[in-house]
Amino acid sequence: xxxxxxxxxxxxxxxxxRQIYAGWPESWADLRWPVGxxxxxxxIEAGYARNPSxxxxxxxxxxxxxxxxxxxxxxxxLITRRIDAQDRRCFILELTDxxxxxxxxxxxxxxxxxxxxxxxxxDRSVEALHQGLHALTEALGALQTQSSQSSSEDTVKExxxxxx
Length: 164
Prior knowledge:
By secondary structure, this protein is mostly helical. Helices cover 74% and strands 6% of the residues. It has a two-stranded antiparallel ribbon.
């Protein structure tokens, strides 16, 4: 039973994401930003992208594209790039106050949309959804922790095997 339920959940997730995005046209238009720029802001805010290389890896785009995205975000005062004190060849990406405000605005739009939908659902279903989302959030957090630990171990192994 579990594989069928999982397949159904994955299909429902695709439908849910499409419905959320379908409800955003005027919201996205208000923001005046390409999706890649908005995703970059969200990645930086969440701590998944500390530097341009992280953005490139996560978005699966080349460094030239990332540089263009970051240039625009920086020129609009949404992010800053500062030299990494531990590796002066690298930049650390951070949101400005304006960048944090924009992320809060996007979150508020999505929360409002979801809240209106949740208020139409019976209490029992909302509680079941709460439990399921909590479990899924915990599982994704554990996978991300494993992934980052694995990446760190791989980096250490690479350094250990480099000739002096």
